[in-house]
Amino acid sequence: MALAYNPLMSEPSTTRDRFYVTTPIYYVNDRPHVGHCYSTLLADTVARFMRASGRDVFFLTGTDEHSERVASRAAEEGMTPIQWADRNAGLFKEAFAKLGFTNDDFIRTTESRHKDLVTRYVRTLLEQGDVYLGEYSGWWDHSQEEYLTETVAREHGFKSPVTGKDLVKRTEKNYFFRLARYQDRLLRHINENPGFIRPEARKNEVLGRLRDGLQDVPVSRGGAGDGGAAAWGIRMPGDEGHSIYVWIDALFNYLSVVDTRERRGYWPADVHLIAKDILWFHAVIWPCLLMALGEALPKCVYAHSFWIREGRKMSKSLGNFIDMETIDAYCARYGTDALRWYLLTQGPMGATDADFSYAKFVEVYNADLANGIGNAASRVVNMIHKYFEGKCPPPPSDSDDNARPLPGRARDAAFRVSACMGENDIGGALSAALGLSNAVDVFINDTTPFKLAKDPANMERVGHILYDCVESIRIASVLLSCALPEKMGMLLGMMGQPVPMDDGSFEEPMDSLCAWGRLNPGDAITMGEGLFPRADGADPEPGAR
Ligand code: MSP
């Protein structure tokens, strides 16, 4: 094996459990839009949560730059491919930084740290006979840069299933990867590891296609004599006339970035977060390449669905993308956390597409944030100011008391959030965390401390009620901080509690932060500004042009 990392050299020590999450690397011929931001946001939220739980996290995103379209677009713009790639990779970096994403690295496939390793991997495959020179004839989908089989091409009327553009019959002398050789092992792996392809519907889709049997796939470009495009790409080792097919080059990013002495321990990835459009490459071709290299397989490939707009696919031709200008306008009006919340809770995490709608945004913002956690927190803080001079009142003595539902609710919420996050069920995790703040509201309505406080003889009881409320709000804030880092940081700060660091981690692991009873009587609880001012749906949509 020609891997860069030599396992005989001493391994960098880390005592913490590692966690590696990736996003697709995005084509640099497009500008970033909500779809790219969404996948990266999911990874960011998982990464923040795992860091807060005390895991040693590596979160990778980046750009995929050796596509034919980059070379042709650059030519149209009168630029060299790398100039064009530099410009657009910069836009992705800028967008992700603005949204506060905490990626530990940003790989560009034009960097030599990646190219050198891809060359090595492919050379190993050639030497082993897993890659060979042959001839290929198939239906080329130029818009997606992939070949389709005769059956699939016919099924779609010889049009791209993704963009609807005409397919072209193409014959090339090419290098092939012996994909067919790994079919049985892959099938076994999928069946023995039910969590490998998620969600279930996507797994069944892959299993269905696998029934047709696997054919070897081309892994090089250039045999058709398209020297221009082939020149923009990583050379095929030992054959200057070919370059490595952009998809093979791109998939290797997940490994190349951690194939160093310091980072080797992160492999295999815990989860590759992608969308359904690129499932086949990730659930079939990538694992087979890894098997051929003798590498461990990622633990999970999670393929979400698409954001759509008013029931239609977002596309260049319709010009209906939620672009960065719109995203910036939402963040400017409601705060980045509010947009994160909407995307995370209403997004296409399962097997169905999700419609991006301003009306829905306002509804969810008001229900979950303004009237949800925001209102619960301000009710509790205001009462602590009104009745206890802004000091945390003393708790009752017995936290297992049946009349005290909140300690148990908080324990359950922490448990459910963790369990859901472990299953990539971000929506489930956030609804469990928000459920705790809703329980605070219900508890206040049931126990009516505002009425009890009218009689000074009840003040001890009022204090007990408010202690449970503020302690629950504290725990809910910790649990929600991966999704709402800025606002939950403010709220925790108001309670004099540790706030999340820029990467989402806390000074202490979440388990101990979520233990009941960290707030002490007498702790100052300060009044902040309203966390989430109510949104008015009558206002025009942010960024509307
Ligand atoms: N470069 C390849 C991926 C290589 S990964 C080794 C590619 N790039 S892409 O720029 O087209 O990005 C595709 C990914 O962007 C999707 O898989 C998804 O993660 C995200 N999205 C793009 N449009 C999207 C929506 N409309 N909705 C949700 N996510 C989508 O394919």
Provide structural commentary:
The chain starts with 17 loop residues before the first strand and ends in a 32-residue tail after the last helix. The chain is α/β, with parallel strands linked by helices and 545 residues long. Strand 10 (235-236) and strand 11 (239-244) form a beta hairpin. The chain has helices spanning 34-52, 68-76, 81-98, 112-128, 150-155, 183-192, 200-210, 227-231, 246-251, 253-256, 279-292, 324-334, 336-346, 358-388, 405-422, 426-447, 449-452, 459-480, 485-494, 510-513, and strands at residues 18-27, 56-64, 105-108, 131-141, 146-148, 168-177, 197-198, 217-218, 220-221, 235-236, 239-244, 271-275, 301-304, 307-309, 312-313, 354-355. It contains 20 helices and 16 strands. The model is unreliable at 1-13 (pLDDT under 50). The protein has a 6-stranded parallel beta sheet with strand order 3-2-1-12-13-7, sandwiched between helices. It has a 4-stranded antiparallel beta sheet with strand order 5-4-6-8. The site of 5'-O-[(L-methionyl)-sulphamoyl]adenosine (MSP) has 19 residues, from strand 1, helix 1, helix 9 and strand 12.
